[in-house]
Amino acid sequence: xxxxxxxxxxxxxxxxxxxxxxxxxxxxxxxxxxxxxxxxxxxxxxxxxxxxxxxxxxxxxxxxxxxxxxxxxxxxxxxxxxxxxxxxxxxxxxxxxxxxxxxxxxxxxxxxxxxxxxxxxxxxxxxxxxxxxxxxxxxxxxxxx
Length: 145
Description:
This protein is 65% helix and 0% strand. It is mostly helical.
């Protein structure tokens, strides 16, 4: 269904390699009342997919979760609300910055042992992360200091 070289597979592999305890995403533990929260890994996949495909708003991301086959695969058919997506973005600015740092460290460690196909995928992911970081900087969501 999803091609082997699809960018969603790269996003999935990268997010699965992240240490979420170290990145300290907020509200990833269930509260005493209410529904359990979405896994931060799933929302991060959605967030990165949205920026890769120039889908910026939470409402559009919510809509894409119901009609885009690649996104359905990436999200395991989860359909978070626009509000959940927006809260994830606003609550996890520092954790998102930490994810970018982990990406740089992972890239430095793995570049020497990768096949040509994996190097191409890493370059694609690096471009994606750079675009994503640039967008956040332009929106004054995070700073590099």
